[in-house]
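User: Can you predict the 3D structure for this chain?
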Amino acid sequence: MTFTRPGSTEQGTGHSINLSAAGILFSTQHSLQENTALDITVSPVNDITPPLNALIQIVRVVETDNHMFEVAATIEGIKAS
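Assistant: Here is the predicted structure, written as structure tokens:
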């Protein structure tokens, strides 16, 4: 998955851990802040399924033992592909 802050061209990468209709949990090397909005694109392994483009709001960031961050966020809106 990739993410950017709205209005920015700087792109970050992450790995989705869990995805539901209301939220997403992902890991990243980037230190992100709670209450930050991000535009995300989650590309499935199967090319038949289109990518998910959404606006999310970060609600929790936890640093893991391996200097990664687990980020929990709510999905605020789905964007057209």
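The first strand starts at residue 2 and ends at 4. Residues 2-79 form one domain.
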